[in-house]
Amino acid sequence: MIELANVKAEGTMSVQEVKATHEYLRKVASTREPVRALSEFVWNALDADSTVVAVDFVRNGLGGIERIEIRDNGTGITKARADRDFTDIGDSWKLSLNRTAGEKRAIHGKEGRGCLRFFSLARWATWKTVYA
Question: At residue 59, does pLDDT exceed 70?
Fold first, then answer.
């Protein structure tokens, strides 16, 4: 399950239920390379003009990884874009762009499925975003 908490001035929140076939998820999330899965999120942050990206592994009392937190200072996700991008898997705002708006970086990934790579690491994910 993907839960997207979309925070803005009025405090609205959007929870999206992503539906995809088991076969599609198997293809998208099948990576035995956790670094590759994490790199998708770092690329997404860079595509959002982030200049700082932090990846933290929060450990439990036994030393195992309890959760992975990725934070960045990118442009955020508007509610309208979240509603579209997280329910229409395979569609991406990046399709019509070659460079990011602020930093003018080359855009990485235009297939609209990189966010599902988390399934190779975990059973659920939460996105929290703030935007202007």
Answer: yes
